[in-house]
Amino acid sequence: MSQQTPAISPSSASQTAQGTEPSPVIAVSALAKRYDSGFEALKRIDLDIRRGEIFALLGPNGAGKTTLISIICGLVNATAGKVLVDGHDNVTDYRAARAKIGLVPQELTSDAFETVWNTVRFSRGLFGKRPDNSHIERVLKSLSLWEKRSNKLIQLSGGMKRRVLIAKALAHEPQILFLDEPTAGVDVELRRDMWEVVRELRASGVTIILTTHYIEEAEEMADRIGVINRGEIVLVKEKRELMRQLGRKQLTLHLQKPLASVPPALSHYPLTLAEDGSVLIYTYDAASEPATDSGEHVSISKLLNDIEDAGIRFKDLHTEQSSLEDIFVNLVRERQ
């Protein structure tokens, strides 16, 4: 991946005074969308996006992710509610609001017989920006597209075409970038390259909002995570806080000798037997377990001592922690 300087720098006018709470770069209030058929795609969404963060929006198919993004970007009209983009109402002050945003859609839609260079250069002109070949060059180099600048889009791989979509979105120097399923259909290596591009953009001051079906994408990159289901925001949390509060840990002990049942002396622990009594499993909430200075959970130490006192010997143990995917699936299932 090219190590070029990121193509965008934050607007100094949008910086907040040191020590003050920054205003959200996107503020969504009571946003609703009801189609003529009566279907409610969004139900009074309230959401603030912080300046300079990577915000991942997760949800199952049909949850309302693309509808929400489309309304914020001014592509779909809301039934009710309000959207401010860096302080600009996206309806009454549409041009100013839209100029702040770059959108990378799911669909690979471009003129197949146009060159990469002309495609990206034309996108800049659509926003009334003066030609700036040096900026277009920086964008293409940052996305490893410079060597392909004279190629027609029809000659590019699917991954390269997706990079061209990102280049088009960055052509007019937006402060906010929406990525709607940015790595759909992209191989693992190229996906990780694109993650690096996103990190570089964030480091330059660009706010990133992405929707994704790849849970590891959110777990890898996001600062905060929002979950939407059936048109409603289920939760918005710092990623680390979400993992801490909702993640579960599991301690698995492989016993030297099978047990017929859990001994009465250990009955106050949430223990279960598996594999015909040869495996003892303890499941607990990581957030609720007090820790010693060394970081070891007190209850785990006590559990192991009590297991030894009960005359149980084990030959191996390991721990597992819930992934973001586990947490997401559980959240959605609880609200079905």
From TrEMBL:
Residues 26-255 form the ABC transporter domain. One of its GO terms (molecular function) is ATP binding. Residues 1-21 are annotated as: Disordered. The keyword Protein transport does not apply. Coiled coil: none annotated. Pfam families: ABC_tran. Keywords: ATP-binding, Nucleotide-binding, Transport. SMART domains: AAA. InterPro entries: AAA+_ATPase (IPR003593), ABC_transporter-like_ATP-bd (IPR003439), ABC_transporter-like_CS (IPR017871), ABC_transporter_ATP-binding (IPR050763), P-loop_NTPase (IPR027417). It comes from the Bacteria. PANTHER family: ABC TRANSPORTER ATP-BINDING PROTEIN. This is ABC transporter ATP-binding protein. It comes from Salinicola rhizosphaerae.
